[in-house]
Structure formats: structure tokens, C-alpha cells
Amino acid sequence: MKHFTSxxxxxxHFHFPLGSYMAHFGSSMENISIMGITSxxxxxGIGMNFDEHFIxxxxxKSIDLSCNxxxxxxxxxxxxxxxxxxxxxxRNMFRGSIIREIGQLKPLNSLNLSTNNLFGExxxxxxxxxFLSILDLSNNNLSRKIPSST
Length: 150
Prior knowledge:
By secondary structure, this protein is mainly beta. The chain is built from two helices and ten strands.
């Protein structure tokens, strides 16, 4: 496997377990800057294999995991990606509330959690996202006004 030493984009549109992609890229994972994995029928959660690799994705700026039939709660591990600017988890089957730690993603500019099964209140911690200019929470069962500083 070639070792990538500069940032690169990972765009996947195949039907293989996500963990196998991560294992394939190995240490090169730390150089991914944009990850787009859309319209893949994962029919379940992201899984532990993927969660273990979040720590190595230090250069990641954008994640698009839309339209993948992902379920379960939104992974808290996402909040360890402190350089994340764009996060799109739309059109999946995530359930539960928006994770409180979402406010830790300070540079986040765009957040799309639309068309999932999210419920509960829109958290006050979202007001900590001072760079947020695009927010889509539509087609969920969320309540409360969006905090004013977002």
C-alpha cells in the first residue's frame, strides 16, 4: 500500500465494510483532509473499527456520511476531530439526541443532521459554534429554538 504523505481526499462509493477501508489505508489515514462516503448501504452503525480510526484523522476538515443508512447514536468520537469544518450526517437513521459535545467542534462552519430520527431539545452547547453559517436540522423531531449565537 502506498503511504500518502500529503493531505488527500477519500471519496468512496462502494459496498464494502467501512472498517476494511480504514484498514486498507493504514497509517495514511492521518493525511486525509476530506472524507466523503455517500450512498453506501451500511445498514447499521459506523462500528468500532471506524471509531478507532478517528484519532488518526487529525487533518480531516470535512466529513460527508450522508445517505448511508447509518443508525444508532451520533458517535461522540466525531468531537475529537477539532479541525472539522463541515459535517454532513444527513439522510441516515441516527436516533437519540444531538450529542452535547457537538459544541466542542469550534471551527465548524456547516452542520447537516437533517432527515434522521433525532429527538429532544436543540442543545445550548450549539451556541459555542461561533463559525457556524449553515445548519440543517430539518426532518427530525427536535424542539427548542436554535441558540441565538449560531
